[in-house]
TrEMBL record:
Name of the protein: DUF1996 domain-containing protein
PANTHER family per the UniProt record, alphabetical: DUF1996 DOMAIN-CONTAINING PROTEIN, PTHR43662
Source superkingdom: Eukaryota
Residues of the DUF1996 domain: 45-307
Amino acid sequence: MLLLLSLLSTLGLAAPQLGTSPWGPNVSSTMLRFGCHQLVIDRIDPLVNPGSLPSPHLHQIVGGNAFDISMPHNTDISSLANCTTCSYSEDLSNYWTANLYFRARNGSYKRVPQIPNRLLFGDDFTTKTDGGFVVYYVSGGIGDVTAFRPGFRMLVGDAGRREPQGLRNQTCFRCYTGPDFGGDDKAPCVDDAVDFEGLPNKMCWGIRSNVLYPTCWDGKNLDSPDHKSHVAYPVETGPHTFTGLGTGGQCPESHPVRIPQLMLEIVWDTSLFNDPDEWPEDGSQPFVLSTGDTTGYGQHGDYVFGWKGDSLQRAMDGVCFGANCHVLESQSLEEAKRCSVSSRVGEEVDGWLDTLPGNPDIREKK
């Protein structure tokens, strides 16, 4: 319960009274937190590299089965999908990020497995997924945000970045100290002592990556050439906004429409690679994103909206909490696992590899 109260305070949400359900009537804001099983791991990117087979680097994808080499613009994606890997069956959106690989001292690579997240707010689905990650949507209450429209898509981060930009409040990494998710008693990306803009340079039981999307929209464009310019982060932040951003803070005049705070949370089991004899002799960290990034500064997340009808708006106005929203339809993990798409590239991505898939340029951390 202490973790719950601490997280609620950081998120700026009203805490439920002791003894009540954390998603009960005493909650004044919405924070959806739900797991999504792996849909596919593949080297395609319908947002940044539409039509390219393959795209430059590998991604891990969750969500609806409309995911493909290209996804048509200005189209209701939910009408093209008939299943999703997420616990909320009305969410047919797609979310994808880079994979993480371990580079052994001999120069070979092995993909680091994504593992289920911790049990929180009674969400058993999220603790049993095979791969995949956790998705958050946050609003400040009824009428606080305008849900995304069909055809909406956006990108946060830059796959080519290799230098720090002071953007820890957009993407960050946390080092877990043990199998009990030790060190996970604070909300993401708010504490310099535990969260890092780059990959942690020490042995961890697991590494958690958080990707936080902008919360202001220009109200007109569903996309932009860079997939970023139609959205923006707030120009002001307060002490009780989600990770200092969230749905709080003043939106710029150019982007006056407040949209839900979307966040992705990925956990990798790095404990499998904690043999010091396999780490670089100079003591540097051995993990590399599938973009060829040894720094972590290039972590990024892609999003294509695909909620059915007005379901997301209902959820944002429904003072829901966690993975048990009374206005949304849920599905079992078994149903979610039956949803998948075939790999379009069909290359080997697991086991020990001589090069990363696509053989991206490895540029060392300076």
